[in-house]
Design a protein that fits this description.
289 residues; alpha+beta; 3 helical TM bundles of succinate and fumarate reductases; 6-stranded mixed sheet; 6 strands; cysteine-type deubiquitinase activity; Papain-like_cys_pep_sf; Peptidase_C65_otubain_sub2; protease
């Protein structure tokens, strides 16, 4: 009996060793196959990155972040044979020029900030300037009260505040030149636009109850749609940043029937400066009379 038991134990050990060896061999095979697939996948990623970089470079060469003032008729020409072409005839009764924005997901923020900053360079005594300056000074505390780390927002806050304070020192004749340099600079512009996104997120979180019926979980919405670089701006973000700063915006939205829908935010009871923007699906440009 003892011999039989020993034989059985030996057979079981042999089987376990054999199974373990086969398993290790199978594992080696799987690792080799996975590595091959990974190498191929990385090659595809590299090719895709090269293509995306080439495409991005072509877009940058063709379209600056913010254009010089352009006749509105030029924009109309680009929409010829398009259902929105007739919209520009109606728009031309109130506006004649446009600053075009690159379609990079930041077009609203650039257009809005350009016109706001431009307004205060040309109107340094506007009482709204001091009101907004006070809001901006307190914005770091507002963000920290919501849980933002000071070290994470401080550089963005400092640059935005410094540039806003500088507006009163810029000669009116140099307004466009200064703002084109500021908001088209890849380094400074990123900080300024990112802080504008923080301000929008701040208002959304401070008033979460008002927005959660439209955007769901407000914190998740801010993380996904507001605080991410190059994510397009929708109406909740526009309401948020204009309300937080105490400013207005007039959005001229094209319609498929050839008309223009004018959306004013805030809708009523506001008499201060309004940025004037053109909206075609997925994109904003800045309008001028």
């Amino acid at each position: 009996m003892e011999n039989n038991s020993s034989d059985q134990q030996q057979q079981q050990q042999d089987q376990n060793s054999s199974s373990q060896g086969a398993g290790e061999q199978g594992q080696d095979q799987r690792v080799t196959m996975t590595q091959e697939q990974l190498d191929e996948f990385q090659t595809q990623i590299k090719l895709n990155e090269d293509y995306q970089n080439q495409l991005k470079q072509e877009i940058e060469e063709q379209m600056p972040f913010i254009s010089e003032l352009t006749e509105l008729s030029v924009l109309k020409h680009e929409y010829q044979d398009n259902k929105f072409e007739l919209c520009f005839d109606q728009l031309a009764t109130r506006y004649s020029k446009v600053r075009r924005l690159r379609r990079d997901g930041n077009c609203f923020y650039r257009a809005f900030l350009f016109q706001v900053f431009e307004h205060f360079i040309h109107n340094p005594e506007d009482p709204q300037y001091e009101q907004i300056l006070k809001v901006l000074v307190g914005s770091k505390k507002d963000l920290m009260d919501l849980g933002y780390d000071e070290i994470a927002i401080e550089d963005f806050y400092d640059l935005f505040l410094d540039e806003f304070k500088k507006l009163k020192t810029i000669a009116k004749a140099k307004a466009a030149e200064h703002l084109l340099k500021l908001l088209c600079n890849k380094e400074e512009a990123v900080y300024i636009i990112m802080f504008a996104r923080f301000l929008a997120a701040c208002y959304l979180k401070q008033n979460a109850i008002m927005f959660e019926g439209f955007v769901g979980d407000v914190a998740q919405f801010c993380m996904r749609e507001v605080e991410q670089v190059d994510v397009e701006c929708d109406q909740p973000q526009i309401i948020a940043i204009t309300n937080y700063l105490g400013l207005g915006v007039e959005i001229n939205s094209v319609r498929a029937d050839g008309g223009i829908e004018v959306i004013n935010l805030p809708e009523e009871g506001y008499s201060g400066f309004r940025a004037k923007l053109l909206f075609v699906p997925g994109h904003y440009d800045a309008l001028y009379q």
